[in-house]
Amino acid sequence: MSLVHITGFINGEFLPMSNQLQPVYDPGNTTNQIGTISNTPLHDVENAVKSAHQAFLKWKDTSIQERQDLLKKASELIFQQKDKLKELLVSEHGGMLWEAETDFYLGSGVMSMYAKAPHDILIPKEIAEDTGWIRIHKRPKGVISAIVPWNMPIVLTMMKLGPLLLAGNTVVLKPSPFAALALTQLLAKIAEVFPKGVINVVHGDADVGNLMTSHPLVRKVAFTGGTATGAAVMASAAQSIKDVTLELGGNDAAIILENIDFKAILPKLLKGVFTRSGQICFAVKRIYVPRDKLDLYFDLLCEEVDKYKIGHGLDAEASFGPLNNKKQWSIVQKFIENAKVSDQCEVRELGQKINPEQWDQGYYILPHAVKTMENSLEIVQLEQFGPIIPLIGYETVEQAIEYANDNEQGLCSSVWSDNIELAYEIAKKIEAGSTFINSHSFDSLQLGMPFGGVKQSGIGRELDINETLKSYLEPHSIRYIK
Fold first, then answer.
1. Which H helix or E strand runs over 310?
2. Which one, of 285, 263, 242, lies nearest residue 387 by Cα?
3. At what angle do helices 64-93 and 153-166 cross, to 10 degrees?
4. pTM of the model as a whole
5. What is the rounded CA–CA span in Å between residue 169 and residue 166?
6. Are residues 80 and 169 in the same domain?
7. DSSP letter, residue 43
8. N or C: which end of the chain has fewer CB within 10 A?
9. Which domain holds residue 471?
10. Helices within 167-283 (DSSP H only)
11. Which of 11, 7, 10, 64 is nearest to 195 (CA)?
12. Residue 232 lies in a domain
C-alpha cells in the first residue's frame, strides 16, 4: 500500500500541503507508516467556515427533494467506495476488516434513511385562528461544526452529515487524526455530489477544534468523543450560545437475571464486549450476575474468551485487533495493573497471540476478565475502552439496578432474561439513553431509533429522524392578526 497524503478540503478543493505534518502509523505495526496528514492552518480553518457560510446562503433555498436526491447519491457512493477504502481504514484505526466493512454499510444506510425521510418536519405548518393565522417555518441553522472520533468514523460522520444536509445546513468537519485518511478521501468524493462549500474538511488538534467551536459564523456543534473533551466543546460553544449535540462516553451495564442460560447467551454478550477491542462507546463494560452464580459464570466466560486470537485487523484468523493508539493502550494497561494489585478482585489474562514476535510493534492487549463483588472498583466505575470486562456479583435484582445506575454515564445498557416482561420492567428503571433486552451490540441498533445518552453520556439524540432533524432546524413563527 503506497503512502496516502491528505490535506484539508475546502470549497471543493484540497489545500496544498502545509508545514504541519502528522505521520500516520499502523497501530498493528507501528513500524509501518501508511500516510501523512497535513494539519490545516488556522487561517484556512477560517476560510473553511466562510466558504461553508457562503454556500449556505444558496443551499438553504434548495428544495427538500433536491437535497434528498443528493443524499441518495452520497449513500450509493459510500457503498461503492467501501472496497477501495476498507483496508486503508483498518490500517489506520486498528479494527478488523469486517468491522470496517460494517462501518461503511452503516454509513451508507444512514444516508439512505435521510434520503427517504418524510417531509413533514421540514415543511411549514399553519394553525388557523378566528383572528388570523400562525405559520411555523423550519429554517436551517447555518454552518455546523462536526467533530468525529476514530473508532467508527464513517457511520459516526454520516449520523451528523445526513440530517444536517437534509435540513439545509452546511458543514466544516474535523476527523480524528487517528482515522482521517479513508474518511477524508470519502468525504471529498461525497462533496463532489453537492455544491462547492457545502462539505468542508479540516485537520488538526485542539487549536483547530477550538476555532471550530467558537467561530461566530458556526451555529451548532455536533461532537462525538470522550466526556472530558465534550465538556470542553460545550464550554467553548457556550461563549457564543451555540447549540450542541454531544454523544459522549459510556460505561454500559449488562444485567444478567437468574432465569437465563448464561452459556447460551455468551456469544451474543461477548460480541457486545469485544467488538473493536472494546473501543466502542456503547460496548458492554460491566456485567452484573447473581452472587451465587458469579464463580460459575466467570469460569464459563473465561473459557469462551480464552478461545480468542488477537492479531492484526487484516489477519482473517484474528478475533479482534490492537488498540488504536499509544495513549489508549497505556490507559488500558493501567486499568489492568491496578486491578491485579487489588485484593478485591481476581484478574485473568486470556486468549492467544497471533505472531507474538510482532506484538512489541503494535498496541496489542490480550483480553482480560475480572471477578469482583465491589461495584466501587475503578475498573467498574470508569470506562475502560479496551478488551477488559468485569463481572460483578449482586445479591438482589434491586441491587443490580442500583449498581447499574450508580455511575455518571448512561449511554446504553441491557437486561438478559427468559422472562421478557420482567426484563422490560427492569429496563424501565435503568438510567440510560437505550436499554436492550437479550442483546447489546451493533445488532441492537436500528435506524430511526433514538441514540444518545443521559447524565454525562451526552446531550441530544442521533439516528431518530424527527428528533435529530429538529436539532438542526430553527422554528420561525409568523403570525397574522386580522
1. strand 309-310
2. 285
3. 170
4. 0.96
5. 7
6. yes
7. H
8. C
9. 4-248+457-481
10. 181-191, 206-214, 227-238, 262-274
11. 11
12. yes
Query: Length of the chain in residues, anyone?
Result: 482
343 lies in a domain?
A: yes
Alpha-carbon gap, residue 10 to 351, rounded angstroms: 46
Provide, rounded to the nearest whole percent, the portion of the chain with pLDDT above 70. Answer: 100
3-state secondary structure (DSSP) of residue 170: strand
First to last CA, the chain: 71
Write down the pLDDT at residue 411.
98
**Residue holding cell 442500583?**
402
What is 67-79 written as a DSSP string?
HHHHHHHHHHHHH
Look at residue 90 and give its three-state secondary structure: helix
**b or e along 183-217 (b: 16 or more beta carbons within 10 Å of the residue's beta carbon)?**
bbbbbbbbbebbeebbbbbbbbeeebbbbbbbbeb
Residue 1 confidence class, pLDDT cut points 50, 70, 90: low
Which grid cell sits at 177?
A: 487524526
Asked if residue 263 and residue 115 are part of one domain, the reply reads no
232 and 274 in a single domain? The answer is no
In this model, does residue 441 exceed pLDDT 80?
yes
d(CA 345, CA 353): 25
Within this chain, do residues 281 and 159 fall inside the same structural domain, yes or no? Answer: no
Based on the fold, state whether residues 242 and 258 are members of the same structural domain. no
Mean pLDDT (the chain) is 97
Supply the residues annotated as catalytic.
247
